[in-house]
Automatic annotation (TrEMBL):
<dbReference type="GO" id="GO:0003677">
    <property type="term" value="F:DNA binding"/>
</dbReference>
<dbReference type="InterPro" id="IPR036894">
    <property type="entry name" value="YbaB-like_sf"/>
</dbReference>
<feature type="coiled-coil region">
    <location>
        <begin position="7"/>
        <end position="41"/>
    </location>
</feature>
<protein>
    <submittedName>
        <fullName>DNA-binding protein YbaB</fullName>
    </submittedName>
</protein>
<keyword id="KW-0238">DNA-binding</keyword>
<dbReference type="Pfam" id="PF02575">
    <property type="entry name" value="YbaB_DNA_bd"/>
</dbReference>
<keyword id="KW-0175">Coiled coil</keyword>
<feature type="region of interest" description="Disordered">
    <location>
        <begin position="101"/>
        <end position="126"/>
    </location>
</feature>
<dbReference type="InterPro" id="IPR004401">
    <property type="entry name" value="YbaB/EbfC"/>
</dbReference>
Length: 126
């Protein structure tokens, strides 16, 4: 017959488990806050286009210099696409670094966050 654990020992184990879960929840909240604040800004080499994206790679700001008036619209479009791709790569890298610092480089959480951050990149960019 299996021996029953004393009530005090069981309460202590539950209290320890609860403390670990509360600590983990606080860590997740802090990581979520830090990830929410990730922003990446990229300016093309000619200084014509500046793009900022959030941690998910969503465009949050686009600034065009007055030089766009002196170039072909196709050139401006290419610069915007290139700058957006570069900013998304930077955001994915920053997101991965935050996750690795918070959860460990080899954790499943870091892998999931990194995979999500890279999911918006073109396959050859990730």
């Amino acid at each position: 017959m299996k021996e029953v654990e004393p009530m005090d020992a069981a309460r202590q184990r539950l209290d320890e488990w609860k403390a670990r879960m509360e600590s983990h929840a606080a860590d997740l909240a802090a990581a979520n806050e830090e990830l929410a604040s990730v922003k990446a800004t990229y300016q093309d080499p000619n200084g014509v286009v500046t793009i900022t994206v959030d941690s998910s790679g969503n465009l949050t700001d686009l600034v065009l210099s007055t030089r766009v008036q002196r170039q072909a619209p196709e050139e401006t479009a290419r610069q915007i696409k290139d700058a957006l791709a570069a900013a998304k790569r930077q955001a994915a890298q920053l997101t991965s670094e935050v996750a690795a610092r918070r959860f460990g480089a080899d954790s499943p959480t870091t892998k999931a966050l990194t995979d999500y951050a890279r999911s918006g990149l073109d396959p050859e960019e990730s």
